[in-house]
Design brief:
It is a single chain. It contains six helices and five strands; from the N terminus they run E-H-E-H-H-E-H-E-H-E-H. It has 188 residues and is α/β, with parallel strands linked by helices. It has one domain: Flavodoxin domain (Rossmann fold, 3-Layer(aba) Sandwich). The protein has a five-stranded parallel sheet, sandwiched between helices. The longest helix is centred in the C-terminal third of the chain and has 21 residues.
């Protein structure tokens, strides 16, 4: 089983990446294959709503989107993550899910019945709205979203502060455990 964790932060090796890494580490330790994809340093332009993907089955915008989209299609499980920026998800992750959603539909709903869910890091507030922004992508695409022991949220501002949020890290591991369990059941 292959699970891709996409870090929607423009900051490399920050709190969001740390939280995703915690989930992916658990998956690897329990037999899964993982890949961490950073949007930092990549160009993901916003969807221009041209709808040409409905005719061609491809997005006409030339940037780093296709490589990431292809990994999402190949994966059994997808984790999307974002820090809270001004009360919502980052523009990078939002551009990715808008384009991935349109293209998935154009290609016959390629994410349907895959397993996935969001991970969010907040400094103080905005985490629930950001969590729901990402969650709605999974629900809209007909994906299976595992629960955890709480919302998949952790807290931290400066790099490394998320490491002090034991409950947040534990919630990410529990989410990863549920992902593995569901994917295993689906593949039996």
């Amino acid at each position: 089983m292959y699970i891709v964790g996409i870090v929607g932060s423009p900051r490399k090796k920050g709190n969001t990446e740390r939280l995703v890494s915690e989930a992916l580490r658990f998956i690897e330790e329990n037999g899964g294959k993982t890949e961490l994809v950073r949007l930092a340093g990549k160009e993901i332009k916003p969807c221009d709503a041209c709808l040409s993907c409905r005719k061609t089955g491809e997005c006409h915008i030339k940037d780093d989107f296709k490589e990431i989209f292809d990994k999402m299609v190949q994966a059994d499980g997808i984790i999307l993550s974002s820090p809270v920026y001004f009360g919502s998800a980052t523009p990078q992750i939002k551009a990715l899910i808008d384009r991935a959603g349109y293209l998935s539909i154009a290609k016959g709903r390629v994410f349907e019945n895959k397993v996935g869910g969001p991970l969010v890091v907040a400094r103080r507030a905005g985490q629930n709205f950001t969590f729901v922004q990402l969650l709605f992508f999974f629900l809209h695409q007909g994906m299976i979203v595992p629960g955890s022991t709480y919302w998949n949220i952790a807290f931290g501002r400066e790099k490394g502060e998320v490491n002090q949020d034991d409950e947040g890290l534990r919630t990410a591991r529990n989410f990863a455990e549920k992902m593995l369990w569901i994917i295993t059941k689906l593949n039996q």
